[in-house]
Amino acid sequence: MGATFSWPTTRVLSTHCMARDAVSPMTYNLTLLLFGVGLLAGAILPRFLRRTPVSMPMLYLGGGMLLPFLWADIPRIDPIDDGTLIERLSEMAVIISLMGAGLKLDRPLGWRSWASTWRLLAVTMPLCIAAMAVGGIWLAGLPLAAAVLLGAVTAPTDPVLAASVQVGPPGQSGKEPEVRFALTSEAGLNDGLAFPFVHLAIVLSVTGFAMNGMLDWFTVSVVWKIAAGTGVGLLIGWVVAWLVFRLSPPDVVSGGFVALALTLVAYGSAELAHGYGFIAVFVAALTFRRFEKNHTYHHALHDFSEQLEYLFLVILLLALGIAVTQGLFADIGWQQVALALLLLLVIRPLAGMIGLWRSGLPMAQRLSISALGIRGIGTVYYLAYGLSYSVIDETVARELWALAAMIIVLSVVLHGIAAPKVMKHLD
Fold it and tell me: What is the pTM of this model?
């Protein structure tokens, strides 16, 4: 009997030990320690940084860059090999941020009241995509599909890193400063509306300009997915609001559970309906916000979303900093650096000014909205998603990752220094 069970038992124990050794306990515990320190820094340091040109995202990036020098056995982060994990983490960060953005917008939806938003979406974003695609071909020598993907992933204003230029918590009675409102609403919607261009890059990489591929792209990726995302967001936002405000007293319902449930139900439902989940989450948040507009319960939902968003921000920026030190920029040249600076200092500001031309806004506000288009976590998600479905050579894919990371790093530094001063002056 003993001989019968000794071999399989030994095999199971051996396999279990090998699985444990795959992730060292020291590595796991140090990782927990680092993220804990990062979160603690996010809670304590902001008040001490107010009078300095340093922002928390800059500290997280810099800390991530230092870690490989301080921790020799730190796991290697590879954007190609770890693409699926990066995609999922950044996806969660973006949808939670979109929920928070929708919950804090008090201004009623309308053609005139949201005029600056529509201009940024209809004019500025397509101009940025086209300009970056041309720049990718001309300066970086990218193939067409990769250049279009570059334009699509770098066009949206990031809802995660743009917190410093967004409106405050709910309860401003629709009187948000125009610059903050425009950047918040733009970040809420253009993360979803950039998706058709990501799908265009995927189609170009697979079928080129084949008529069937272009027709499917327009009818499905443009018309249906936008409509489905909007419709699902309206429905889920209204249903969840009715359940919370009509079926049960909001005071006894956990705001954190509702915020997370609203985010996940809206996103999951839209994706199952083959719609854009990003649009659904933002629309659901707007719909929920307007069901009982003046209820203080919205503050609990917003605060929870903001804190959860910060958790993912710490993880992703530390990881980005680590990847940079581990060689993410190894093959980057002056052309890629020039293209990154061109986007942040010329393309986005110029496209923003064109979009806001004859908008009636003062020049200072137009310049601020145009210049403060922060790039960040949304770019990470879109690139990971686009590369997982497209047919793009690995060498080109690594160049895209290096270029996108360069844009994010420069945006964190340049906007991190400039945004507080600009917003303080405007406020």
Answer: 0.89
